[in-house]
Amino acid sequence: MNEARTAVAVCAHPDDLEFFCGGSIRKMADEGWQISLIIATDGDRGSHDPASSRHLYASTRREECRAAAWLLGLASMEFLGHEDGDLQNVRHLRAELTRLYRILKPEVLITFDPWKRYELHPDHREIGLAALDARLQARLPHFHPDQLRDGLDPWTITDIVLFNTDEADYFIDISATFDAKLEALRAHTSQWESIWPQTVAAVRTMAESTARLAGEGIHLAEGFKRLHVPLGPVSAGWGQSSHPAD
Ligand SMILES: [Zn+2]
From ligand 1's centre to the CA of 74, what distance in Å? Predict the structure, then answer.
């Protein structure tokens, strides 16, 4: 086991990671990966009840995140607290992400594919762009030089894994971790409990149809678009996956 394998996942909302790649994240954690999660908004507009309090809702969703993070085996979690639904790929957000990349020093960045066709949630598009733009900025010392004055160094992430993609070229067999994915998703009680049977059916159908793209012998899978950016220090780990679809 490579003890230095680290990844950062950057999401827009509290349950994005579990929904789109919870099976893969739990599998990576079981294999020894140190995975940090950054959540840009509190998802405090994710209620259909006009009488609900956004403030209270935000704190509920943070609690649900902590429960889910434990179930997935995450190493750490950061909440950026931006406005749900109005996320923008702007300098301030890129600076926050750049600082966290320089602190966490991940080999792998996991985030939304911002170029997925017909993605209707603006936060999903914006966080993908911001996460990728911040990756570039984290490598270069003239971006956010105040962070260098704070003692941080430039950092290069060499491997990018995009979820919620329509260009999947990398598949992870989640048959062994599918139940853990469901359990972590269900920890987001405020989102899913009232429609849980339908959610299980939809998530299973999604994993089964992705598995058909992954190849023979795989029954449940999550799919990703994978980019290797061979600049800077050589990364070990992700590219050496023993996954059968490799
Ligand atoms: Zn979302």
Answer: 18
